[in-house]
């Protein structure tokens, strides 16, 4: 029983680290949002001299595509980071077995760290002794 508790504790710590990495990496799509905002600004406020000969300004809708996609991927990344954090909390408090198992399956999509963490979490959670720990708390 002590070995299962130790495995759950370690998995919870690794989930916290994974959530932090996911939150950090979810800020990168904001670069696309910034580029899109610049495109929109340039399209609405052309320079006083206008575009140079043979040069065309980017269309405004292209900027909106960048802004919307960047914001969407940022929010999706933060949502995933929060879900990984909650899964780590479920593992440490030994509650929410189904949520932790589903999140472990979803984490397998994020190569390489998420795959390793997800597979180890699935292996540990599939043990009957670990399942018993979740039902007793």
Quick description:
This protein is mainly α and 137 residues long. Helices cover 78% and strands 0% of the residues. It has one domain (2-48, 58-136).
Question: How would you characterize the overall build of this protein?
Answer:
The chain is mainly α and 137 residues long. Helices cover 78% and strands 0% of the residues. The chain starts with a helix and ends with a helix.
Mean pLDDT: 91
Beta-strand content estimate: under 5%
Q: How many beta-strand elements?
A: 0
Low-confidence stretches: none
The helix content is over 70%
What composes the largest sheet? none
Quick one: overall form? rod-shaped
Question: How many individual helices?
Answer: 6
Q: How many domains is the backbone divided into?
A: 1
The helix/strand series, from N terminus to C terminus, equals HHHHHH
Q: What distance separates the N and C termini?
A: 14 Å
Structural class of the helices, strands and pairings? mainly alpha
Rounded Rg: 22 Å
